[in-house]
Known about the structure:
- Two copies of one chain form a homodimer.
- By secondary structure, chain A is mostly helical.
- Chain A folds into two domains: 88 residues, Winged helix-like DNA-binding domain superfamily/Winged helix DNA-binding domain (Arc Repressor Mutant, subunit A, Orthogonal Bundle), CATH 1.10.10.10; 31 residues.
- Chain A has seven helices and two strands, in the order H-H-H-H-E-E-H-H-H.
- In chain A, strand 1 and strand 2 form a beta hairpin.
- Chain A is globular and about 50 Å long.
- The interface between A and B is large, with 52 and 52 residues.
- The structure holds a DNA duplex.
Amino acid sequence: MYERKTLPNLHCGLDLIGEVLYGKWKIRLLWFINEGHLRPSELQRQIPDASRRVLNIQLKELEEHELITKKIYPVVPPKAEYRLTEFGQTLIPVISALGNWGDENEDRLRSVILKRLKSKS
Amino acid sequence: MYERKTLPNLHCGLDLIGEVLYGKWKIRLLWFINEGHLRPSELQRQIPDASRRVLNIQLKELEEHELITKKIYPVVPPKAEYRLTEFGQTLIPVISALGNWGDENEDRLRSVILKRLKSKS
DNA sequence: TCCTATAGGGATAAATTTCTCCCCTATTGT
DNA sequence: ACAATAGGGGAGAAATTTATCCCTATAGGA
């Protein structure tokens, strides 16, 4: 596994939340788990652009940060379920705030993002 | 300059806001500009852990995404000021929500983050 | 005269994150 | 026998982001 060479900043609230939410798919994982998509395969279907591997890794990190719990059922074929912890649930309103702002400004955002991309290519 | 090889996802609001806020220092830049630290040198002092270079690059991206504007004064020594656009101002409540959650859970966050770091080293 | 502050950019290295490919387990269905 | 499904993990490549180093220019102060 990759080992960090520099320590993260943990000064203020923004540093701290950044440390647990920074990861390409983490916010979406929390969101979909909250929506009731609990099993890894469901989450992968909800987020088809992510590789299976990275979702596992990011789920593990969310678990280590105590935002979700994982329950493994000893059955065959295997079954696992993730759920938000109480702590993780307190993040949902914050994630909603992010998503709502994005939704409310959808057209404008898409426009500026694409404009920038084109100017670089 | 680096040229993207894969396109970003722009499906939902979370994708879109992620695209404009994803960057190690962007949220803090918006925050400090909103607090009145308008000049590049002030921003660098507020965020001493960031390299000068990266702040410039991320400021440029924020500008291209129309969240901030830049005004250059043709004086010597040089002077420049950034300000939030109206669009950028609408992000402040969202950033506050992030920061507040981080502040409210400061102890717990620091604890789980450090615990995880130690277990990896 | 030399150092500092101010703003910025190019080239390149280093760090970090994400992806791809392959492998393992055991059961059910074809 | 073989594929599909479900969950997971290692190795290494590729992509992306961030950091470092060096250079431009001018004014003012020690």
